[in-house]
Amino acid sequence: MLVLWKRDKLRVQEIGEPLNLDSATLTPLLKRLETAPLIRRVRSTEDERSVLVSLAAVGRALKKRAQTVPSHVLCAVFAPSEQASGAEAAAIPASAAQALASGRRMSAQGVAGHGEPM
Fold first, then answer.
1. pTM of the full predicted structure?
2. In degrees rounded to 5, what are phi and psi of residue 61?
3. How far from each other are the two terminal CA atoms of the chain, in whole angstroms?
């Protein structure tokens, strides 16, 4: 979904390249996404061997909700536990801030660090 949110209407091979996945691996996943219905798959009119994948309306709408996932995960993972000692509890917010900053840098670089923002 991240690849399609960056650029819609891609061939299966173009989706697989930044993810280092081949079409045989992607096809079952894409079929499930089509059933969801988050995407649409259509044979290319220029080359019948190629399948073009584009976002469905539901898939486009999901992008906004998905943008909040990283911060929610960090909050859940780095929430101070009741068993943590004072020093451990104090280190958790610093770790969370570092992880969040790292995630933002990775997000700014794009999927698999190809330099394109997500």
1. 0.61
2. -65, -30
3. 11
Give the three-state DSSP class for 78: coil
In terms of Cβ atoms closer than 10 Å to its own Cβ (0-12, 13-18, 19+), residue 40 is middle
**Of the candidates 115, 111, 1, the residue with the CA atom closest to the CA atom of residue 56:** 1
Q: Quick check: helix, strand or coil at residue 26? A: helix
Say what the pLDDT of residue 114 is: 46
Of the chain, the percentage scoring pLDDT greater than 90 comes to 50
Statement: residue 49 has pLDDT above 80: yes
Name the DSSP letter for residue 113: G
Q: What is the pLDDT of residue 93?
A: 64
Q: Which amino acid is residue 26, in one-letter code?
A: L
Q: Report the alpha-carbon distance of residue 2 to residue 8 in Å, rounded.
A: 10
Gyration radius of the chain's alpha carbons? 19
| Cβ within 8 Å of residue 66, ≥6 positions away | 1, 5
* DSSP string for 44-62: -SS-TT-EEEEE-HHHHHH
At position 85, the amino acid (one-letter code) is S
